[in-house]
Amino acid sequence: MVGGGPGAGIAETHRTAMRLDDRYVMMAGVFSRDPEKSLTAARKLRIPEGRVYRDYAAMAEAESGRKDNRIDAVVIVTQTASHYEIARKFLKAGINVICDKPLCLKLVEAKELAALVEKNGLIFCLTHNYSGYAMVRQAARMVRNGELGRVKVVQAEHASGWASKLVEREAIPQAVWRTDPEVLGDASVLYDLGTHAHQLSRFVTGLEVTEVAAEMNQIVEGRAIKDNANLLLRFSNGARGTLWASMAAIGNEHGLRIRVYGDRGSLAWHHEDPHYLRYCPIDGAPQILAQGADWLSSDAKRWTRVGLGHPEGFFEAFANLYTEVADALLAKADGKAYAKTDLSFPDATDGARGVAFVESAMRSYEKGGGWTKVELV
Amino acid sequence: MVGGGPGAGIAETHRTAMRLDDRYVMMAGVFSRDPEKSLTAARKLRIPEGRVYRDYAAMAEAESGRKDNRIDAVVIVTQTASHYEIARKFLKAGINVICDKPLCLKLVEAKELAALVEKNGLIFCLTHNYSGYAMVRQAARMVRNGELGRVKVVQAEHASGWASKLVEREAIPQAVWRTDPEVLGDASVLYDLGTHAHQLSRFVTGLEVTEVAAEMNQIVEGRAIKDNANLLLRFSNGARGTLWASMAAIGNEHGLRIRVYGDRGSLAWHHEDPHYLRYCPIDGAPQILAQGADWLSSDAKRWTRVGLGHPEGFFEAFANLYTEVADALLAKADGKAYAKTDLSFPDATDGARGVAFVESAMRSYEKGGGWTKVELV
Amino acid sequence: MVGGGPGAGIAETHRTAMRLDDRYVMMAGVFSRDPEKSLTAARKLRIPEGRVYRDYAAMAEAESGRKDNRIDAVVIVTQTASHYEIARKFLKAGINVICDKPLCLKLVEAKELAALVEKNGLIFCLTHNYSGYAMVRQAARMVRNGELGRVKVVQAEHASGWASKLVEREAIPQAVWRTDPEVLGDASVLYDLGTHAHQLSRFVTGLEVTEVAAEMNQIVEGRAIKDNANLLLRFSNGARGTLWASMAAIGNEHGLRIRVYGDRGSLAWHHEDPHYLRYCPIDGAPQILAQGADWLSSDAKRWTRVGLGHPEGFFEAFANLYTEVADALLAKADGKAYAKTDLSFPDATDGARGVAFVESAMRSYEKGGGWTKVELV
Amino acid sequence: MVGGGPGAGIAETHRTAMRLDDRYVMMAGVFSRDPEKSLTAARKLRIPEGRVYRDYAAMAEAESGRKDNRIDAVVIVTQTASHYEIARKFLKAGINVICDKPLCLKLVEAKELAALVEKNGLIFCLTHNYSGYAMVRQAARMVRNGELGRVKVVQAEHASGWASKLVEREAIPQAVWRTDPEVLGDASVLYDLGTHAHQLSRFVTGLEVTEVAAEMNQIVEGRAIKDNANLLLRFSNGARGTLWASMAAIGNEHGLRIRVYGDRGSLAWHHEDPHYLRYCPIDGAPQILAQGADWLSSDAKRWTRVGLGHPEGFFEAFANLYTEVADALLAKADGKAYAKTDLSFPDATDGARGVAFVESAMRSYEKGGGWTKVELV
Predict the structure, then answer these.
(1) What number is the ipTM of this complex?
(2) Which residue is closest to D46 within chain A, CA to CA?
(3) Residue C341 CB burial class (10 angstroms; 0-12, 13-18, ≥19)
């Protein structure tokens, strides 16, 4: 693991996800730029001192050179701005990568990473964790099975209320860097939340967003950046839709949701109740599909641990990605090709498409609105 | 009443709304262009033969000339295309008007009607019935009271599933004219449904939509017009939002809903459960406000007939407008000025703004998207 | 109408229900024991002075003797305690009766009324208004169609929060008599609310409650009676269940709901959202059936005025009973037999069963619990 | 761990719960009566061969005799019938116990276990996992804080649909033993599900069930036992309520829920959406309290890993108990007294009260209903 020292919230989520299905052992890492802090964190995680490195470059070099007991993959949980250089280093060293999202902040860098993955035949997982939910898999399968007919309208939202106040003035690190005009700037809400809604739209529908028209504004006065974005979307099959990303939508909790309307049916999923999927066929009553039910697809069943009425949540969905990657890593270790399916975990290409999407949305907004193409990396 | 003969669904809704609070007696009318059908309808409604007219012009003339027992107002429930000329005739004859929505199909005509109302000092009610719901009044009052702080984001939808199939091929009159390219054309979904969402946004927030960027597409293949529209909105106070109008959103029932986010709180209302309002203050848990509760505003209480847990619905909301108009008509008959308040029933100006909104949205769409100003009539 | 002078809330509901579908004209009445008040009320209702009577007996006599323009039925909306004598008088005079619930306060009287109805071939409607909801009819039809298999468990509640405070001390008439130990006593909560849940159970399942075991307690301290009752039920087909009646369940709004479980499926209906029915077949996902949907039974469609997504509520359900009775009255006036079907409006026998149910529950409670038979009148 | 070999579903849940917060290392065990199977399971769990025992007695003896690296506690996940003897053995050997629920099948045995825990000063956790949910803790704290006033009515349900079909004929082991008249008999539904609802009622309200009146019936014909129970409850403070336990309530998913009504407010919690709590104060609107919100009690916050809108579910609640026990074990290892608080994890006394409850309910049912006292162990 690179990153994830004291106070790094998301790293603990990654570690919990790793533990949940008992498929990972953490063996090496750089947990902080401060060697003392790094060592302290490592001890707590029962990692031998000899495999705590002074920086990511040293780790990449040393681990790639090991004869045995080499790490199968590195987990990158640093701030977004450093993803590119760290991921590149490990990919060049021939080490598989699991990287927190978003992939990076420039499309040109994203493309380079995707190309490296391809060239070196490596496994790269971008932990767009919402793609791991059983009922998101169910939704994706139903769309691909044609149960909605042709997809015509997609309404996606990641409108959270987490920053409804000026939390950046409370010295909460995540709030400070996410609202810093020098770090992510106005694009922050799109990188942080918009990419989740974008990925969810793509994962569920199997379509690409090809054009975007964007508008932004500010909810919390005194904030240094825009904190709200409304987008119109055009999809690769001609479908249309909207995407709303916000960090200050009071009362919305986490606020990730998607509704997909085809010409034969519709689906709705809401992260606040992730074990349900509302499905409505054109010729019948709306149905409440619940995780664990007998009649779900194998894609949903594969990621259900207990059964009907035993809610699984955020950690389980995160763990689903990790477990899926573990299967891929083992297959690769056995010399088998890792077969990416239509519903596999998100990878570097998915990440690059997210970056392309944000860049295009920002261009649209900055030029005063209007349709802007999104490059399909 | 003008219109409302056999098969005219909305006319029966108007008549039910009139009866509900026992504030109206129907005394005259033209119920069909066919004199026989008109007379038959009149008999069923117990209207004396002498006050069944051959056409609206004859009715306007005769009724305006009566010395006693003259109608207090005419109700216009014909197809949209004829609203303008009928309303103009009655307004010129000095007769108050209650008119089904939308007001008409051209902004220039809408302005003329609004000016006539003003000049002749008449009462004009456009039956945007959703403004009549007790909990919509509650929402509007809470926004005006500042309970949401400054309004920042408005998400409005009237995405119905009523025309998810090619219902126009089943010879249902409402489906035929609403999908006829020669009648309303691609603007149909905006005139029919979009104006409801537009009016609801204005009524709840007290803001005007000043600019719009529009995109349309088609859900049901084989249909002669577009049946789906996604719009970005800019509001008069700088708020932003979206409006989704659709006639083919499978599984959405009627699909009218609004969410308003301020910098101090948020509100959500959904027509499918109209007796509830979800309110979330910035510093507390979301609350479920229910019609009939003690702590609601007098604006909500005025329009609540029974009380908590006794749901009122579509007809009651419609009746609320009629009863409010009855009060205004009586006041006027008593020589008192009719005092329009900040939450009064929608009038000709509201109607004109709806027409301006649709015209601007269509211009935006037809030019390939991009922000387009909406004239504030 | 007998009763329904100033301040009589339920009478206005009856009158609204009569008006809604325009099937009734009110022609005569006694609106108060105070002749002045009665006359004032009658004038407001546009009833000719000659048909305002000094008391119910005079009304029954005079109306039964009229040669023409005689009333088709009398509506009794007095307090429960006087229902018996008033209803008896009209029934003996050969006049059809529409009576507010509960029927009366003694089983022996209830039986006499039911027998009189039968003997005189009259129409008697007890306005158990919840049986009038379209989706309650849908539920009843689905059970009778076998869509739930054999009914095994019934969970019924009418646990309202209306008297969560000592409202009887606020001089609200309905609160005063309903908590008066001399009027209804501890049985009040069962007569007022329990009979609704009992009738709903019978109407939906087509089963009878044959045994009851009851427990009561008091929620609001200082109240003169018990205000909460929990009952175990045994049904005629061997099904089991519970019934909860309360007048002080904080936060429950009106609190009428029913859940029916068979061995092939289940149904749930909640008065707070009366246009929905949750249906779950044994082999599929739960479905949300909405009033107005294409796939509902004709029993539901008959009582739907507008359509999907246009909520109908309390008044419409009440009006449904009135309109159904109007059909029966017209049939009878035409000399046709009034054919009671399996889903017709509640009548005197239904009322008598409600009284028998309350009496048995009170006997069980007063003897310290344990199963007590309910007489099937 | 004792038990938890191949196919033992609940054991995997225990192990996942142990791993989630990284507070446990599994070091010894007997995973099956078949030594081969036990060894295979142990290897998969990376447990050294020397600490895989031939039976629980050998394990208790050997582990209690170890000088160092001794197990801190044993986890018992065998079938209910063997809990008593296994737990007794370890308790007598001075080893702390974590035991799956229900505690055992006879009150006399339950008392003995509770007494042994007390006498030997040991930690005993009965994994009534629903007591581990953050929002259940919140509910319990609010009741104890008096936010509901005096508790008056408790409505508890654990009405699952898991055995709505004759699943026992499909050779599913859990279904076979749970419907075997020789194992748990008619009491099965009460032991398996009823004790959860009973414990939840006690944990949330802080009250004891002192009397019960029970009725049972059968939903699935052909089953060898009763599968449905409806109970009336009397609580130690005079409150009343009901408890519904079922294994065949079609459409109910897991079906665990509780509603508590006091004279100042009410609370409702439903396991299907465990991150929400509906709270209604007597003088305000119902509120939706969500896990992770700022205004929750420290009892809820202590068991929240991520925050608002990031649902935690079944495993997290289970893990909460394990982590709480880990704290107690560490305190004890440090020679500190383990301080049981009013909201600590369920223990042997809680388990004994569950057994007493089931025995009393069965006595009530078998004697034909009527109130039966529940011994407060």
Answers:
(1) 0.96
(2) A22
(3) exposed
3-state secondary structure of D292: coil
Q: Give CA–CA dist D206/D154, Å, rounded.
A: 12
- DSSP states along C149-184: -SEEEEEEEEE--TTSS-GGGGT-HHHHHHT-TTTT
**Closest CA relative to residue B54, chosen from B34, B28, B71:** B34
The whole-angstrom separation of Cα D78 and Cα D102 is: 11
Answer whether B202's CB lies under 8 Å from B373's CB.
no
Q: Do residues C314 and C272 lie in contact, with contact meaning Cβ atoms separated by under 8 Å?
A: no
Determine the Cα–Cα distance for residues D269 and D258; give it in Å rounded to an integer. 5
Q: Touching D: which chains, 3+ CB pairs < 8 A?
A: A, B, C
Is-contact D2 D74, C-beta < 8 A? yes
Element (H, E) at D279: strand D276-281
State the pairing for strand pair A124-126/A96-99: parallel
Tell me which residue of D136, C313, C287 sits closest to B276, measured CA to CA: C313
Helix axes C195-205, C134-144, angle to 10 degrees: 50
Q: Is D88 helix (H, G, I), strand (E, B) or coil?
A: helix
Size of interface A-B (CB pairs under 8 A): 135
Distance between CA atoms of C371 and C240, rounded to whole angstroms? Answer: 12
Tokens of D241: 């309520």
Region C259-283: what's the mean pLDDT? 97
- Averaged over successive runs of 10 residues, the pLDDT of chain A (377 residues) comes to 84 96 96 94 94 97 95 96 97 98 97 97 97 98 98 98 96 90 96 98 98 98 98 98 98 97 98 97 97 96 94 97 97 85 94 98 98 96
- Are C221 and C251 in contact by the 8 Å Cβ rule? The answer is no
* CA C308 – CA B314 distance, rounded (Å): 11
Please tell me the distance from the alpha carbon of residue D264 to that of residue C223, in angstroms, as a whole number.
Answer: 15
What's the token pair of residue B188? 């149909």
Question: Tens digits of per-residue pLDDT, B18-48?
Answer: 999 999 999 999 999 999 999 999 999 999 9
CB B319 within 8 A of CB C316: no
Angle at D53 between CA D47 and CA D54, to 5 degrees: 140
Phi, psi dihedrals of residue A225, rounded to the nearest 5°: -135, 170
Report the C-alpha gap between A241 and A233 in whole angstroms: 5
Residue B172 has pLDDT above 90, yes or no: no
pLDDT-derived band at D166, boundaries 50, 70, 90 = very high
How far apart CA D158 and CA D166 sit, in angstroms, is 19
- Cα angle for residues D33, D36, D38 (degrees, 5° grid): 55
Compute φ and ψ for D289, nearest 5 degrees.
Answer: -85, 130
First to last CA, chain D: 28
Measured between alpha carbons, how far is B355 from B349 in angstroms, rounded to an integer? 10
D20 close contact with A: CB closer than 8 A: yes
Q: Which two tokens stand for residue B110?
A: 């809408």
Region D181-205 average pLDDT: 97
Contact B261, B286 (CB under 8 A): no
Cβ proximity of B28 and B64 under 8 Å: no
Tell whether A277 lies on the interface with C, counting CB pairs under 8 A: no
Query: Is residue B99 helix, strand or coil?
Result: strand
Contacts of D303 in chain A (CB under 8 A): none
Q: Judge residue D252's burial from the number of C-beta atoms within 10 Å of its C-beta, 0-12 exposed, 13-18 middle, 19 or more buried.
A: buried
Longest distance between any two alpha carbons in chain A, whole Å: 64
Chosen from C15, C20, C22 to mutate, greatest number of chain B CBs within 10 A: C22
What number of C-beta contacts closer than 8 Å exist between A and D? 98
Contact D313 A309 (CB under 8 A): no
The DSSP bridge pattern shows strands B276-281 and B265-270 to be antiparallel
d(CA A274, CA A314): 9
Give the per-residue pLDDT at B5. 83
